[in-house]
Amino acid sequence: MCARRLLIAAAGASIVLLLSEVSGARAKRQAQSVSTTAHLTTEGALPSLGGAIEWINSPPLTVAGLRGKVVLIDFWTYSCINWRRTLPYLRAWAEKYKDQGLIVIGAHTPEFGFEKNLDNVRRATTALEIHYPVAVDSNYVIWQAYSNQYWPALYIADAQGRIRQHQFGEGGYEEAERIIQQLLVEAGNAQVPRELVHIAPRGVEAAADWRTLKSPETYVGYARADSFASPGGAARDRAHVYAAPSQLRLNEWALVGDWTIGAESAALNGPGGRVVYRFHARDLNLIMSPSVRGTPVRFRVRLDGEPPGSSRGIDVDEQGNGRVSEPRMYQLIRQTQPIADRVFEIEFQATGVETFDFTFG
Length: 361
Fold this sequence. Notes:
- There is one protein chain.
- Helices cover 12% and strands 30% of the residues.
- The chain has 361 residues and is mainly beta.
- The chain is elongated.
- The chain has 5 helices and 19 strands.
- β1 (5-10) and β2 (13-18) form a beta hairpin.
- The chain folds into 2 domains: 5-205, 3-Layer(aba) Sandwich (Glutaredoxin); 218-360, Jelly Rolls, CATH 2.60.120.
């Protein structure tokens, strides 16, 4: 789900940007709260961490047991591109300040059904090199205790267990790290290093090119889909043969072939099915899953009808070939400049695949 509103910094004051065209919970653009380290306020006590169905990398943690630590709570879901671009900073802060009194805790609260699967969360935690504690919040108990609405969302608490800062969305990394440093000093650690971490993210974790990004997150399932352009619209929850329109306008997309569109995703019923999208962005990502665990599905990507070549994402080769092997986000296109309107197409060589959500960067 996309963000209802974003908090951004401007001239030292909060500006609330209402996004009327989207609704829900995923923070889209660079967003940050605006308190400065000189004027931190108290936002209330750190809510309970009870309700996790499991803890990864740690025994269960409690608010009482964390007293004396500076605590950063990070709400995440593993297929979220907005969160993935914050992850390098979370890793770096957890490592740099672990001996200074900081503990980073990831609260994994799922967006899609496959993210409720504990084995999927465990695999993602390992693959993404997350070594700090993770509370698996599949029932949204911790999310609700914080009245949270966003991925990603950070809540930073002092050693007395009081939330002193929150931040929704990407960006604001320098400010967040300065706040961590300040709270560690307040906790009595005089040896806190004052330099900031140096991050050079690569691949999926590289920051979006906000200057050229003109395509919004686009869901495939009918519960949140928009700009679907196949003639006749969506036939909900039943098999239907779809076609592409003669022309796609910017940010329109279509299915081709025999698909069943459900509330959360579209499932392919026969080989040769395609998805097409006219987009404007450096990166194009698509969340996909094989319908049957352990049964990969091969696909081929085209950009304006041609193999992507040097514009390929990390999950395809230069000819556009790849395979859906597990439920996750796949980076399919990363263009070089100049960025223009392009037509993306993905064709699947077999049945047994589900598509969930386009994201861009």
